[in-house]
Amino acid sequence: xxxxxxxxxxxxxxxxxxxxxxxxxxxxxxxxxxxxxxxxxxxxxxxxxxxxxxxxxxxxxxxxxxxxxxxxxxxxxxxxxxxxxxxxxxxxxxxxxxxxxxxxxxxxxxxxxxxxxxxxxxxxxxxxxxxxxxxxxxxxxxxxxxxxxxxxxxxxxxxxxxxxxxxxxxxxxxxxxxxxxxxxxxxxxxxxxxxxxxxxxxxxxxxxxxxxxxxxxxxxxxxxxxxxxxxxxxxxxxxxxxxxxxxxxxxxxxxxxxxxxxxxxxxxxxxxxxxxxxxxxxxxxxxxxxxxxxxxxxxxxxxxxxxxxxxxxxxxxxxxxxxxxxx
Amino acid sequence: xxxxxxxxxxxxxxxxxxxxxxxxxxxxxxxxxxxxxxxxxxxxxxxxxxxxxxxxxxxxxxxxxxxxxxxxxxxxxxxxxxxxxxxxxxxxxxxxxxxxxxxxxxxxxxxxxxxxxxxxxxxxxxxxxxxxxxxxxxxxxxxxxxxxxxxxxxxxxxxxxxxxxxxxxxxxxxxxxxxxxxxxxxxxxxxxxxxxxxxxxxxxxxxxxxxxxxxxxxxxxxxxxxxxxxxxxxxxxxxxxxxxxxxxxxxxxxxxxxxxxxxxxxxxxxxxxxxxxxxxxxxxxxxxxxxxxxxxxxxxxxxxxxxxxxxxxxxxxxxxxxxxxxxxxxxxxxxxxxxxxxxxxxxxxxxxxxxxxxxxxxxxxxxxxxxxxxxxxxxxxxxxxxxxxxxxxxxxxxxxxxxxxxxxxxxxxxxxxxxxxxxxxxxxxxxxxxxxxxxxxxxxxxxxxxxxxxxxxxxxxxxxxxxxxxxxxxxxxxxxxxxxxxxxxxxxxxxxxxxxxxxxxxxxxxxxxxxxxxxxxxxxxxxxxxxxxxxxxxxxxxxxxxxxxxxxxxxxxxxxxxxxxxxxxxxxxxxxxxxxxxxxxxxxxxxxxxxxxxxxxxxxxxxxxxxxxxxxxxxxxxxxxxxxxxxxxxxxxxxxxxxxxxxxxxxxxxxxxxxxxxxxxxxxxxxxxxxxxxxxxxxxxxxxxxxxxxxxxxxxxxxxxxxxxxxxxxxxxxxxxxxxxxxx
Lengths: 327, 728
Ligand SMILES: Cc1cc2nc3c(=O)[nH]c(=O)nc-3n(C[C@H](O)[C@H](O)[C@H](O)COP(=O)(O)OP(=O)(O)OC[C@H]3O[C@@H](n4cnc5c(N)ncnc54)[C@H](O)[C@@H]3O)c2cc1C
Ligand code: SF4
Hints:
The complex is a heterodimer of chains A (327) and B (728).
Chain A: E1 5-8, H1 12-21, E2 25-28, H2 34-39, E3 47-50, E4 59-61, E5 65-69, H3 74-79, H4 81-86, H5 88-95, H6 100-105, H7 108-113, H8 119-122, H9 163-170, E6 174-179, E7 182-187, H10 188-191, E8 210-217, E9 225-230, E10 241-250, E11 253-262, E12 269-270, H11 272-278, H12 285-295, H13 307-323
Parallel strand pairs in A: 1-3, 2-3
Antiparallel strand pairs in A: 4-5, 5-8, 6-7, 6-8, 9-10, 10-11, 11-12
Helix pairs in contact in A: 5-9, 11-12, 12-13
Chain B: H1 15-20, E1 35-41, E2 47-53, H2 55-59, E3 63-67, E4 93-94, E5 100-106, H3 109-118, E6 120-125, E7 151-154, H4 157-163, E8 166-174, E9 186-192, E10 195-200, H5 205-216, E11 223-226, H6 242-254, E12 258-261, E13 277-285, E14 291-301, H7 314-318, E15 325-332, H8 347-364, H9 368-374, H10 392-403, E16 416-417, E17 420-433, E18 442-448, E19 454-457, H11 467-479, E20 486-489, H12 506-531, E21 545-548, E22 551-554, E23 561-563, H13 564-571, E24 575-581, E25 586-599, E26 605-615, H14 622-641, E27 673-677, H15 701-713
Parallel strand pairs in B: 1-12, 10-11, 14-15, 19-20, 26-27
Antiparallel strand pairs in B: 1-5, 2-4, 2-6, 3-5, 7-15, 8-13, 9-10, 9-12, 13-14, 16-17, 17-25, 18-19, 18-24, 21-22, 22-23, 25-26
The structure holds flavin-adenine dinucleotide and iron/sulfur cluster (SF4).
């Protein structure tokens, strides 16, 4: 790890200004991902702008929805009463993330911006298009058990590891940003980018842009929402497959359903086609299975991750039949 | 009289020091003037170093030196327990990714680490072979290792297999796994003239000393190795590894002490691992399930420089009564780092054997426990002589009863609870423990001071298992003093000789000499008392004196009493005695029963209940013994369900060289464990009735889990770990 400069900042405008003016600067919030990447030599920054002291950690609940400050800690959000009561999927996704120690440190903004767990990305001596553009993607021919079956390109098939983002996607949340050109808003669904030709660009975030808040629109149906996370050990591990679902039933029929998936795609993944299969239909296992088949229609399995195609369909049956009271 | 401490669940005497941070581990104490070392390791797995340019690194602030093969003196490559076959920085050849090619010394660790990134190394790289599957050469039979042949033949196994009434043939496999003790390997080397002091994360201070003595051509008495505490070893700190030798060499070149701590990633290439393993088993039996033939061929990953096989097949050749046995342990060398011993080296091959027996049990329709009883042997399969004190049958009985095995569903897949299939499985546990080398014999000294306290000194180690505590219990009992009047001084090669804490050898080799030395100290103090006219015990025959609570009493007249403190105080000088004893290797046994729940739709496996019973002769300390069972069971769950190291097929680099990518069980994966002990002294023991035990629990756990998964689902997974993709 190289010596680096360090500036703690007190207000968001200052944060943006310092970050813009300082070459090689990055924000540091909880540091739970950034410092590991720097230590492993996977990422280098000449300067860190410490935003952990910014007054952007509050959570407010109003008629229009929930607003979570970009620097709210994962634990704080998971424990918030409104979150637990009105958006259980969000609390469940957070509680299924990392460990209590990490959740005490880690922030919401940092969570959306955490980088992939692909082993080649985190090994500074390996080739990796995401870390060193143009160096190649060893995962395509190498170890890809944890990799994406949807949304990949011939340049990268890494998954985005955030559980929170998957839940926020099912809730149609909006990311609030503040940059050198002022504030703007981006729907969570448009925030993360598929690798395409440029896997080194994870999100639409611009240089020196700050995540100030996440807004989750109020939706009565979100009370009936759930997060299912499957992983290789009981806790403290990233998803092999995860699903966030919001389900609204009326008279046994699906009035509305929102499904977001983690672990199977290069970004938090929404499948409008799969949702359309269910919408307006009676909720049955057969209907869920049809939706699952539509979800994975374009899947590109690799030598080690093919099981995810089957697993995510089963997980969808498991989650929706539970949420819809079919069992 | 004293209530005996040996056998009781005495709390660790060093527990408080450990949880408060007072215990000083080998890398904890600052050494004045010490530089920090950091290794530059090869990014390629095969080829040659063509050029090393240290100029940028040398220009980095704080950097004192960068040493390469051009700088290091030629050293002598030690043999076992140096496992590697070569010392890095002695030439330009690269044998595996992660091999050290240079060492950087700097004032701070951060400077050394950053400078290591700045050392430019050019390679002539060749495409490596990263897995046994890709090896072009066929597996071969390596030469015997440590006197053990890799081929064992008894009777005519091939013919007996052909003629068998019932046959099971299957292939089992296990991936590479790493020890991953929580404490990383660390060396601090300090030269004073031609005397060397090394603070080392060592399971064997004398072992480290002998390896350094060979490498540097230095008489052992000029070398002192210190390891007062260890944050886990599991075999990874038994052998001596290159970083230790390189640190010592660098300290000599620099003329300053050097400290080097490996990173977690470096521990995936520099400190050994459990080799990737394949096992082809053919078992012949009668229709009742009595074994008639066992033919086993195993293939283990070797390396380009080291031919030893550590995944031993002891269980196949010795655990059950079988007249016709043929075991062949073969190997293939890819371009990977050398493997080594890892807690319970039998575990990999044991998994196949205990799974195959389960397959046989289902095939012949015999209960798996009954099948094992039917094939139980009371005699050594190799020599035919009786095995003294073996109580494995008791283990089956105790654990089966406690588990409720008799209520087991008779068919696989028969029990469902909600969304989960429930299954029960069992396996035998067995481990061969080692003896300390016979020469010199293991020796302890005990010194009783004028304060009446006893200090026991011996060059053994506490690798986290409880040596400090058990030694204290033994001395307290032998002398009749309270536990807190005993201080154990260990982990220093300058102390009376003891062997390595590996192969479950510590208790078995150390407690005998400690007991002797303590009894001699007691006798010496009693002799002083009865000969001293000032003592109330003056003139009493020595054999009529008893000791308890730090006092000496007349056996019939308790009012006549003296104390250790008073006797040694009047004597005016400390009383010092020694005790020596040799021990022999042997076996410990057990039975493990587990319940698993497998999610019918999602394939998730949970281990929900574990019951064990073990026979290791006398139990010295129930609490530390149970600690070994908990650790072994938890690790066994890791083995069965998640642990595996991944090598990239093209580069032969480790893809998951960290604890985020290499999964070990967390608390939520570990169920309650009910542990039982037969606790019957072994008449052949030289260790107060105890045998070596530590590595025994774990050996059967992976198979027991796999067998339970089969019972739950009807699915037999023969390739570890049993991840959900194999159950969908
Ligand atoms: C052991 C471990 C296990 C984990 N398991 C999980 C898991 O199961 N599920 C899961 O979802 N996550 C998991 N995580 C990831 C964890 O949630 C993230 O590391 C954490 O949320 C990052 O937040 P932080 O505040 O620490 O970010 P930092 O590490 O400080 O920053 C991360 C990145 O975000 C940028 N950044 C941070 N805040 C802002 C902001 N407000 N505006 C603009 N840029 C910003 C930083 O510049 C940096 O690039 C795990 C992490 C660890 C270490
Ligand atoms: S999958 Fe993406 S992150 Fe992983 S090695 Fe390929 S390019 Fe790098």
